Amino acid sequence: xxxxxxxNGEIRSADVSPETTLLKLLREHLNLTGAKLGxxxxxxxxxxxxxxxxxxNSCLMLAGRASGREVTTIExxxxxxxxxxxxETFEELGALQxxxxxxxxxxxxxxxxxxxPEPTVFEVRDALSxxxxxxxxxxxxxxAVLDAGRIMSTAEAKS
Amino acid sequence: MKKRGRGxxxxxxxxxxxVAANPSAATVKVNTDGTATLLTGTVETGQGALTVLGQIxxxxxxxxxxxxxxxxxxxxxTPMDTGAIASRTTYVTGNAVIKAAEQxxxxxFEAAAPMLNVKPEQLEARxxxxxxxxxxxxxxxxxxxxxxxEIVIGRPAIGSGSYNPPTVEMDPETGQGKPxxxxxxxxxxxxxxVDDETGEVEVLRIVAAHDCxxxxxxxxxxxxxxxxxxxxxxxxxxxxxxxxxxKQVNPNLTNYIMPTSLxxxxxxxxxxxxxxxxxxxxxxxxxxxxxxxxxAAIMNAIYDAVGVxxxxxxxxxxxxLSAILEQKAA
Lengths: 159, 330
Description:
The complex is a heterodimer. By secondary structure, chain A is an alpha+beta fold. Helix content of chain A is 36%, strand content 14%.
């Protein structure tokens, strides 16, 4: 079946078998390997992408269900000139260690900040609760998301 | 009713293993553009080891961390390293890096001495320069000296070094010896809330004070401690591999439950000022010991809250509740 969708602002299409997940479509057909294959059953969250503004586990969504929708992956955040504020604050604070949870963590945070640029600590914890991290204890990740929110809302206020 | 309690636990932990040899080796070459290349066999696993080793090489050579290109973990090309284990990398590999960098620096000093009309021992490496001690305006850049050493003298500035922590074998009669080269120490304090009707334990706050010598990179050490505490919280309350008939029954993250962002308490991390003369620039190590006292502190806090001693981990709600009921019945 042909699946046609918008990925990071670009119309992409691929011919995939019906059982193909969105994650497999992204990684193996569209060569976007930023979203990681972790548990493949929706527990770990490292495959998180944004579909029509909502963060989803792309390992649990069939590629066909994403047809005609708009998908944002970690590759869609930075331009060649500039990192996304989340990427900047994650780097600045040393929020990632091994980094395997990183793409999903940052995408979940983006889905939160796009709707709620000044979240409380609890709202950040809640938004990231589907993204497991074994190294960091989440502490610096939560700080980085709060910092990025502040940067984004200041930028918004200026423009 | 929810009851609050506070518990404390202290620990010491040896840095690097002993009994068998525990060496690391490193090679440092100073390039003619003033940068340096560090070869190390150790592996970066996210703890920031390569950053720390690059910092150590940079400090020894008087250049910036960004000037050091680190090549690692390739058995074809990099020097032997025992491995990213036993919380040993900063201490053991770091000492090897210092030795290698000092050897390369010595070659630079010997090359620069006649250029500056002084003896090599009157020189220091600082701010990307080889300069005369006490007369910093008399200098040659590291790049110039490295170039001169290579092209004119014919002696490239390359150093290699290895370190194997000295230990003293244990005396079988007295049990005395020096099994490890150095030790780190920590205290963690946990505040918990225990529901005495359900046995549920919530960790509210953990304060952790760690002596890991002089931290080379405090941000990375803080990250290690925070991560270690999250593993300790999981070890204390949630994580358990369950077997039935020799098979693991919870091999997935659906049923092997580890802490999420919602389970993590508020953390306060304190690095205790210390300097270990045997470590690289006073540093010891930080990895594994960060997780050691957490579960004990939480168990003591549970005792403080509801008066029951949990002696097997994890302290699941079921376990805590049955201990509370047993205590009431007694």
